[in-house]
Amino acid sequence: MAPEQAAGRNENVDARTDVYGLGAVLFCILAWHLAASRKQDKEQDQGHSGPADKDFGRSDTRVSETSTQRFRRALDAICAKAMSHGHLDRYQDARELAKDVQRYIADESVSVVTESWQERAGRWLRKNRAWAQSLATSGAMVIAHFDRVRMVTQQILGPGNRSARGNSERV
Fold first, then answer.
1. Is the domain of 30 the same as that of 73?
2. What predicted TM-score, i.e. pTM, was given to this entire model?
3. CATH no. for residue 35?
4. Are 6 and 51 in contact (CB under 8 A)?
5. Running DSSP on this structure, what letter comes out for residue 115?
6. Looking at the 3D structure of the chain, how many domains does it have?
């Protein structure tokens, strides 16, 4: 249940409230347990029932730290935005949340994560494996060609020419 619903602030209940619920379902699917604050977990372990009022809605939504599986930070960010404590900070509607999940599944950039150039390059390499292999092969061939040219040039000039050139540079 979204924090605004639990607090009885019905004037704040809108599509973003549903997004919170969808985010909680997504989190449960990914992490294999409910998103609950650590304080709430400790209280339940000690026999107390119910969440502390001040902590309600402030859940740990990091999938990668709560699950034994390693998930990308994009999923962490999607869950965190969907389950944000402030309803204005969430996705505006379920369609926006669905678009980010679909982008993640398609191995595309999601709206809630700013990626480094290394992450973008890695995604490009995964999606364009044939091009990447062709570029790597071409690069290796160019390097081999220049190395061969260097070796032939050394053979033509010979050791005497190189030392003569070195002597003329010293003068």
1. yes
2. 0.59
3. 1.10.510.10
4. no
5. P
6. 2
